[in-house]
Write a structure and sequence with these properties.
mainly alpha
């Protein structure tokens, strides 16, 4: 474990120190939470437009996904208690911080979990309708990498967050499919009941 942590620290220092001054403001912008509100609104609009009657099921699952990835990150941070690069004794003197340090613990990255979770969920929902949705994973990668660039997370934090997000996105997608099928089944039973009463 110490060996892997050492590799993670060295990789962080390499990536965090590989920068260009013109790239700094762009990476800070990419790393920002509010930056991607237009994208979220666009995805929300498309979900509402395409799901129509059962959109409430998809939206509830979307809320579940966000809670799962965000709170999952918080749980692991409190459990693992791995310091962020700016609090780690080995990397703090050398870490390059662009947006401050943040909370003390960084394993795993909520940004990585949230973005990869959302990318996975939306991709699985609409992969047969929108072929370019694979670009969402590039977006998730870019946001996750920016967290290393600005000095907030070790690569291991980002990798673990991404894996957790992909898994959470897949699980919630399966739940969404199950709820959609359940709703369709209940609706069919109701229609049969109404038909039976009216035409018996």
């Amino acid at each position: 474990m110490d060996y892997l942590q050492s590799i993670d620290e060295q990789l962080f220092l390499f990536l965090n120190s590989s920068y260009a001054s013109w790239l700094d403001p762009l990476m800070v912008w990419i790393s920002g939470t509010l930056t991607w509100i237009p994208l979220y609104l666009l995805l929300l609009y498309y979900i509402i437009k395409t799901r129509r009657i059962t959109v409430w099921i998809t939206l509830l699952c979307l809320v579940l996904l966000i809670v799962l990835t965000d709170q999952g990150s918080g749980f692991f941070k409190a459990w693992v208690e791995r310091p962020r690069p700016c609090y780690d004794v080995s990397t703090a003197p050398l870490a390059r911080l662009l947006t401050g340090c943040g909370g003390q613990y960084g394993f795993f990255s909520a940004h990585a979990a949230n973005t990869f979770g959302l990318a996975t969920f939306v991709f699985l929902l609409f992969r047969k309708k929108l072929f370019f949705l694979g670009l969402l994973f590039f977006w998730a990668f870019l946001v996750s990498y920016s967290r290393i660039y600005v000095g907030k997370h070790f690569p291991g934090d980002v990798l673990a967050g991404g894996i957790f997000g992909i898994f959470a996105g897949w699980v919630v997608y399966k739940a969404e499919v199950w709820f959609q099928d359940l709703y369709a089944w209940i609706t069919m039973l109701r229609l049969r009941s109404v038909f039976a009463r009216n035409y018996a």
